Amino acid sequence: MRSKYINLLLLIMFPVLLVGCGGGAGTAAPEGEYSSPAYESPGIADGDAARGQQSDGGEEDTMKITIEAGGSVFTATLENNGAADALAQRLSEGPLTVELRDYGGFEKVGSLGFSLPASNRQITTQAGDIVLYQGDQIVMFYGSNSWSYTKLASVDDLTGWAEALGSGDLAVTFSIK
After folding, report:
1. Cα–Cα distance for residue pair 154/134, rounded to 1 Å
2. Which of 21, 71, 76, 92 is most buried (CB neighbours < 10 A)?
3. Is there a domain that residue 27 lies in?
4. Model pTM?
5. Count of domains for the chain
6. CA 175 to CA 91: how far, in whole Å?
7. d(Cα 136, Cα 152) in Å, to the nearest integer?
8. Digit-coded pLDDT (tens) for 6-65
């Protein structure tokens, strides 16, 4: 008798769960609001763009990006998360230039023009950290801050980093290495 009730409950709840898991996909933005396209994370079938490939030593390969800022070129290592994977996928289509403005004397922030999948958590950033803020803003740190971000990458060598970012607004170009 008890199993009949459980089966009936599952039968009733299954369609509700399917509808609830949709997450609002396909919902249009309210009129007058801009809805930026989201980039999906590449999967294992995407070959070179995918993460998790094994090198001969059994370690995961790391993905690198190049950052051109203030006349200098830096290399950064991408994090292993959906936002970084989606950024790499976007950069595989070509370089991306973002206009950054100085904020708070410790970071540069600018709009990507599209959204990435956020997985925010409270972190304390350091110089060289590159994070996603509010799903569509990229932030590059030359100081430190504690806030809820999705970390995208870390600059490999900070030599000249603060000088390259300078004190005013700045155009920065990101590309896949």
Report:
1. 19
2. 76
3. no
4. 0.68
5. 1
6. 6
7. 12
8. 444 334 443 333 334 333 333 333 333 333 333 333 333 333 443 444 344 444 568 999
